[in-house]
Design goal:
The protein has about 525 residues and is an alpha/beta fold. Among the domains are: about 70 residues, no CATH class; about 55 residues; about 80 residues, Orthogonal Bundle (Arc Repressor Mutant, subunit A). The chain contains 23 helices and twelve strands. The strands form four sheets. The protein has a five-stranded parallel beta sheet. A three-stranded antiparallel beta sheet has the order 5-6-7, with no helix packed on it. A two-stranded antiparallel sheet has the order 4-8. Helix 4 links the parallel strand 2 and strand 3.
Amino acid sequence: MSDLRDAALNSKAWPFVEAKRLLKRYEKAAPEKGYVLFETGYGPSGLPHIGTFGEVARTTMIRRAFQVLSDIPTRLICFSDDMDGMRKVPGNVPNPDALVEHLQKPLSVVPDPFGTHDSFGDHNNAMLRRFLDTFGFEYEFYSAAEFYKSGDFDAVLLRAVEKYDEIMEVMLASLREERRATYSCFLPISQKTGRVLYVPMKSVDAAAGTITFDDEDGEEVTMPVTGGGVKLQWKPDFGARWAALGVDFEMYGKDHSTNTHIYDKICRILGMRAPEHFVYEMFLDENGEKISKSSGNGISIDEWLTYASAESLSYFMYQKPKTAKRLHFDVIPKAVDEYHQQLRAYADQDTAARLNNPVFHIHGADVPTSNMVVPFAMLLNLAAVSAAQDKDKLWGFIRRYAPDAAPETHPDLDAAAGFAVAYYNDFVKPTRVFRLPDETERAALSDLCDRLKEWDGGADGDTLQSMVFAVGKAHGFDPLRDWFKALYEVLLGASQGPRFGGFIALYGVDESIALIQQGLAGELAV
């Protein structure tokens, strides 16, 4: 363990960098509460999206790195702000018109449009927990509605009443003049309409722990801040939640970064040390727009898991968290193959290299062995040329290429074959465009076909690749990538493709000859 810890202290992998920064927080003494608390937040105003998963995954990676560096126990809380008022009706729910009358009511009381849970907040919370459980995260789930109503938040709310003027000073300094006139850090929930009220306070009584305001009908109301009848505005709520729970670390997206000083100040006003932070860049959809729960753009977790493994998604989340990344379906094949490349590399790496390998941060010390003897990108092309409708057809080729492979002994490969068929049919097949070869390409393809007819080297992908290179050079392709582009466009209907020698080895020499002959005869470009 000491060797592992020494290597971790020198690691430049970003989870270790963040964990070392967090460790300095307790370099003089361990936390009085007995553990280091990590937190992630979730606003259940819409269905959980993949960015929410990424926040938990990345926090878990830092938590795992911290556990290598320190013996201090840790906890991870996933906190859902289901007391937040529903500001608009999401566009990706059934019968959205039925929700209009519930605008501004806490999500924990808005009816569930899916009809499966007591509220829309409960439905989205359940979806989030299901997604997180799919990936085996160790976490504790907290509901804001339960937290406020149970009394667990009462002590901090009463402290907020005492410190009302200080909190308001922080908040008002961040607001435009017109907003200042009506702003209050407390949001009462109307006992008449059930809506979250954005109204100014007429008075705040620290001794009684109450606030006074005018309800929607103009009637003056005095009510206690405790018991779940009042919530905090979202910015003060951030800092107050940190103070109430004793949070040591929370990461959030760049859109929150300008508010960090506000969250921190409020946490300190309420008597607690502000946590450490990590700000990550946003995920973008295919058009470069930020993905959103309410609009439902980008990829959902379920959609990713339709086409690839959970581990490949974790790998995607590990990569460059401080760089904005396009998150669309076309990133999946690359993520799958790179994940398995890293698994294969891990087996022969020393301790220092392993701690810098993404798969350590995905799996911890229990890193599995990759049995993907065929890359995912190759499986996609195999599905294309074989017109496979199920993975069994792909296995006919795989067994010939790798006789020792079988679904029972290579479960990752078996799953990937099924994913490849689904991905090909949904995304590749509709976009394939074949073309006829020009004269130079026709001559080169005929030459390749003739050489393959003389081939007796078996499924040797490397030597076949050398043959393909030699044909391209012999026919004057410069740059040589134009030759491979021609192969892909004429034979596969795409501008990019696999390592072609490996593809021939997998698909079969005779089958590849037949494919080239079809391309030359114009039978593919119909």
